[in-house]
Amino acid sequence: MPLKLDRDITVGDNARNTIKSFKYSLCNLDDIRLLAMHNKIVSVGDVTTENLLKAGIGIKLQVVDLVTKRDERHFEHVKGSCEVVNPPGTISLQLMNAIASFMEGDGSGRIEVRGEEDLAVIPIIFYADNNTVIVYGVPDTGMAFIKVNEDIKKEIENMIMEMYRNEQ
User: Fold this and answer.
1) What is the average per-residue pLDDT within 116-133?
2) CB 43 within 8 A of CB 136
3) How far apart are CA 130 and CA 75, in angstroms?
4) What angle do CA 156, 81, 92 make, to 5 degrees?
5) What CA–CA distance (Å, rounded) separates 88 from 11?
6) Across the chain, where does the E strand assignment appear?
7) For the chain, what is the mean pLDDT?
8) Nearest to 136 by CA among 69, 47, 59, 54
9) Are 63 and 109 in contact (CB under 8 A)?
């Protein structure tokens, strides 16, 4: 498995069904505060990120697209953010490389996606270590998290390789 892929990946129906089958845990801010004591927190989504920041929870990586619910609400650009393009239904090479850079580095940061950020969970799991918790919003339900472990990392690696091979 190459550490960095060399092209965009289109996420097909099989991968989407796999993603939908992931076991996640609904949570609240107190749950994330406890998890943040021993794990890196990564947020995906504008509302989730905003809520975690307002609660004073340290976030290693924020991935946002500056809109929620198909333009229902807009968020402000934050100076110093890494800006990437990621078309709907795709995991762009730009997004993969930006996530790899932040996850492999010691610092924290923010990626602002022009397009959709929803699928960023896939490369985040791929590049994350086992001390990472990914927090994201479930529309009209609340906040959820996935704790990265070797089983889910292997599942994501297989999914990425399948999508990668299918496009050659």
Assistant:
1) 93
2) yes
3) 31
4) 35
5) 9
6) 9-10, 25-27, 40-44, 61-64, 67-68, 73-74, 82-86, 90-91, 109-115, 132-138, 142-147
7) 90
8) 47
9) no
Which of the four pLDDT bands, split at 50, 70 and 90, describes residue 13? confident
Amino acid in the structure at residue 111: I
Distances (CA, A) of 54 to 20, 29, 47, 151, 164: 28, 10, 10, 32, 38
> Strands 142-147 and 61-64, how do they pair?
unpaired
Q: Which amino acid is at 68?
A: T
What's the pTM value of the predicted model, to 2 decimals?
A: 0.91
Closest CA to 44 of 124, 160, 154, 128: 124
Q: What is the pLDDT of residue 70?
A: 66
DSSP SS3 for 38 = coil
